[in-house]
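Weekly puzzle thread! Below is a chain. First person to post its structure in token form gets bragging rights.
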Amino acid sequence: MAIKASQVMELRKKSGAGIMDAKKALVETDGDMDKAMDYLREKGIAKAAKKSDRIAAEGLTDIVVDGNTAAIVELNSETDFVAASDPFKAALNDVAKKIVENKPADVDAALEIKTDNGTLGEDLTETTRQTGEKVSLRRFAVVDKADGDNFGAYLHQGGRIAALVVLEGADEATAKDVAMHVAAVNPEFMTRDDVSAERLDHERKIFKEETLNEGKPAKIVDKIVEGRLNKFLSEICLADQAFVKDSDKTVAEYVASKGGKLKSFIRYEVGEGIEKKQSNIADEVQQELNR
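Winning reply:
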């Protein structure tokens, strides 16, 4: 099948592979993006892509804690200039406070929350009018904790990244340290038990193909694969990750040393999963495809 330049650009961005490697992978897999990514990994050309690799939209995140309830919110704008403006920041803070107070079920319900000027949705329309750009509530999460638990809240890069953590026991300072770690390292799961059997089988298959392609002796392939799988899990699971402030301990060990236990985490990065139009390398890709 014909491979489009846009497909090559997307795979190149996700994998870090060169243009021709990306093109070959797509040709070999009939344009299937996920299979092409696996192909590159099997050849040792790319590593597993993180979910936040596709970041484009502008805006900010915020976290508001009110007693045993916290809300983490992402508000989007069209440019970072508007996201840095006072009207946008005021709207974000107001939205987060209203969500904590009302605990809406979803974005549609949040936009119907009553305010002094009408509804939250109408307030955002007014912010759009003030800034000259569309301002929209993209997502939020409301988290409740028990009396003996502790929230850890951390905003990075002025709110480009937000992390909200709940610990059983320990203290607020420890919870904030873990939130800082989550913001910096971006784990996918809390523990290995949270990783599905399907995901484990998939990763094991990829590592086996990669190991065989390296020419390792057949009798030690399975052992190497399990070692690589364990390393992979230690990189994507919060509990097993090396703690950023003390790499001699895992995050779970650090929390346990403070008398606590990991309960949950949420991490938002502005625009993750939203693809922005990319044109700076389009001509270069098209030239390579035409060869």
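Puzzle host: Confirmed. Bonus trivia for everyone else. The domain at 55-144 is CATH 3.30.479.20 (Tetrahydropterin Synthase; Chain A).
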